[in-house]
Amino acid sequence: MPRDDGRTALGVDVGGTKTEIVLAARGGRVIAETRIPTEPGHGAQDTLRRAAEAARAAFGTDFERAATVGISVAGQVGPRGVLLGAPNLPGWPGADIRRIAAAAFGVPARVVNDVRAATWGEWRLGAGRGVRDLVVLFLGTGVGGGAVIGGTLLEGSGGVGGEFGHVTVVAGGRACTCGSLGCLEAYCGGWAIAERAREAALADRAAGAALLRLSLTPDHITGVTVAAAMHAGDPLARRIMDQTAEVLGYGVVGLVNALNPRRVIMGGGVLDGFPELMDRAAAIVRERALPAARGVDFARAGLADDAPALGAADLALARLRARG
């Protein structure tokens, strides 16, 4: 790891409900942190202005010494820092986040998708340390991804490289929130697991009795419900998760064959409820991936909820260092 040059950076992770702000040194050492509600309806400029004000108040003179700010945002970010799409931030697409952040914080800004920021954080500070080629998959409500190849974050020509949740795994398959069909997310995201479980329970109420009992009504079946039913031995919940594991495994086979990473890192709430999914996917990779790619190892994500903010801060420092 390059020597710590003493500079610090602000990392701001803008989510649909809350915005996390950290002040970090190189190597991921958190000096201070705070948070504010996002209030997305007030727009990007208001949120970033309030984030800067909160950081100034919380961090004191340390705020003034920060050399740069990294903004992590739950959306698709273009190469110049313009937000292209953000389902949880209505009205924000088209906003020049980099310009707004630089003005609000008074330092150079870098903007990156939240999962790509977390990918960088895992590579530099978490479960990916010491590896130059890795793929990261976060299985939460949706499926987010990212990759570092040859020590470089995969961003793509339009800034949306690493959208592995929207790789097609079933031709003409289930509808996804992105508007396409058969995406990995449409089978392995938390919302998709719940949707499939609701459909199965309604199609056969006898088989779905455990799920319906745990949720009271079909509309209240969630990924958590499916996890509870499966761990209690319910056959329908087990079948749904077996299908999920198979689709996930073959999806990862495609990623491993295409990118040939040394490590696959997985995290997210779905994996918390179904930790065996990673081992099931790894087994399929070792059986079905190209022989030269089967040596890939698997690891759970090592950073906690600060991963996007920390990754964004470290990315901003790396950009500053590269520019001298």
Itemize the secondary structure elements and their pairings.
Layout lengths: L7 E7 L3 E8 L3 E9 L6 H16 L1 H5 E8 L2 E2 L5 E3 L11 H9 L3 E5 H12 L8 E6 L3 E7 L2 E2 L31 H4 L1 H14 L5 H7 L7 H9 L3 H25 L3 E5 L1 H5 L2 H13 L8 E4 L6 H16 L2
Parallel strand pairs: 1-4, 4-7, 8-11, 11-12
Antiparallel strand pairs: 1-2, 2-3, 5-6, 8-9, 9-10
Helix pairs in contact: 1-3, 4-12, 6-8, 6-9, 7-8, 8-9, 9-11
Low-confidence stretches: none
What structural category characterises the helix and strand content? alpha/beta
Annotation, overall tally of beta strands: 12
Q: What's the alpha carbon Rg, rounded to whole Å?
A: 20 Å
Helix content estimate = 40-55%
Overall mean pLDDT score?
A: 94
SSE arrangement, N to C: EEEHHEEEHEHEEEHHHHHEHHEH
Q: Which sheet architecture does the biggest sheet show? A: 5 strands, mixed
Taking the alpha carbons of the first and last residues, their distance comes to 18 Å
Strand content: 15-25%
- What is the overall shape? globular
Q: Please give the count of helices.
A: 12
Strand order of the largest sheet: 3-2-1-4-7
Structure notes:
The protein has 324 residues and is an alpha/beta fold. Helices cover 42% and strands 20% of the residues. The strands form three sheets. A five-stranded mixed sheet has the order 3-2-1-4-7. Strands 10-9-8-11-12 form a five-stranded mixed sheet, sandwiched between helices. Strands 5-6 form a two-stranded antiparallel ribbon. It starts with 7 loop residues before the first strand and ends with a helix. The model has no long low-confidence stretch (mean pLDDT 94).
